[in-house]
Each structure stands twice: as C-alpha cells, then as structure tokens.
Write a structure and sequence with these properties.
The protein is α/β, with parallel strands linked by helices and 196 residues long. A six-stranded mixed beta sheet has the order 2-3-1-4-5-6, sandwiched between helices.
C-alpha cells in the first residue's frame, strides 16, 4: 500500500489532485481511498487530502508517520503536516507562499524561504519545484496542481506513471483546459527529473 498526503490552501486544486491520483490507481486495478479535511474558509483555509492506494486499503486516513510522500501546495502547510511523513519519505512542494490569516491579522512576518531551507536541511528527500516557471510557460496559475502530479509520477513514490495520471486527468478536467494541464504535468515531471 502507498500513501500520499496532499496539503495546501483552499482554491489550489488539492482535492482535484487527490481524486486524479485515486482515479489513476483505480484505472490500473488498485483499490483507492481518499479523505479530505477542509479549513473553515473555502478559499485560503487549510486543505489536507489523504490518498491511499494498493491491493488492499483498510482505511482512507494516513496515520502519523505513514505517508510515503507529502505533496505540498504551500510550504507552511507542508511544515504543519510533516508529522504524517514516514521516515525517509519524500516531500515535493512548490515554493510560493500563501500567508495564513493569523499572520495577516497579527502583522507578523511569514517567511516561506526559511521553511524551504528547513525542509531541505532536515529531510533526505525534499524537492522544491520551480512552479513559477511552469506557470509562465502554461499561462495560468491554476496548473500548479498538475505540475505537482507530474513530479509525483516522476518520483515513482506512488507507483503511478505519467501516462496513468494523464489518462485519469483527461477524465476529470474540462476539454478546453486539457492541453494546458497536460503541459504542466509534463513540465512537473521534467523539472523533478532535472533536479536528480
């Protein structure tokens, strides 16, 4: 069984990405279970999606220390959810920050760079994708979730190929947005491959 925890904030496509992972796994004959926790604000609140796939999946919720991979849509959310990552597990994240409401209201600083430095220093396998470059090529910030899925496929951590994820993606995304999202998927995989 393989487990992936996706974490970000509302509006980033975290739930859609989790459903695509599950659909890709089911497409190859595996069982898949998912669960989401969504913060109080639909946009800007914390969103955590659990995805578990395998020949047998007893529960949708990943226990602390049980995630093979943590897919981060926002660095602060990655840090907040590190307890789920297993020893030697992989973190794939984008560097762009979304300041939490508490930081905005309290006037406190929120330093995403310090969080990324911490992740690189303390984790064996931590990859930070240049999602800004991918967005520039694709023409929309709404493709970051697909870029992260491309990197996930390239990592091999969930046992899903780029082709399997692309097939599942094609069933979940409107046709007019498909080419842009396929490009992001490919660029996410390529970006991770070049980091190795």
């Amino acid at each position: 069984m393989k487990s992936c925890l996706l974490c970000g904030v509302g509006g980033q496509g975290t739930v859609l990405a989790s459903r695509i992972i599950a659909a890709a796994a089911m497409g190859k004959g595996l069982f898949a279970r998912t669960a989401e926790t969504i913060g109080m604000a639909q946009r800007g609140g914390s969103v955590v999606s659990h995805v578990r796939v395998g020949a047998s999946v007893p529960s949708p919720l990943i226990p602390n220390g049980g995630a093979d991979v943590l897919l981060g849509f926002e660095p602060g959310e990655v840090l907040r959810n590190l307890r789920y990552l297993k020893e030697g597990g992989t973190v794939i994240t984008c560097p762009e920050t979304v300041a939490p409401v508490t930081a905005s209201l309290g006037g406190t600083a929120y330093d995403g760079g310090a969080i990324l430095a911490y992740l690189r220093e303390h984790l064996e396998k931590a990859a930070v994708l240049d999602t800004a470059a991918i967005v520039a090529v694709c023409g929309s910030p709404r493709v970051v979730n697909m870029a992260l899925l491309g990197a996930l496929a390239e990592s091999g951590e969930m046992g899903l190929t780029l082709s399997e994820i692309e097939t599942a993606m094609a069933k979940k995304i409107r046709p007019r947005f498909l080419d842009m999202n396929k490009k992001a998927l490919e660029l996410g995989a390529k970006t991770l491959s070049e980091k190795r």
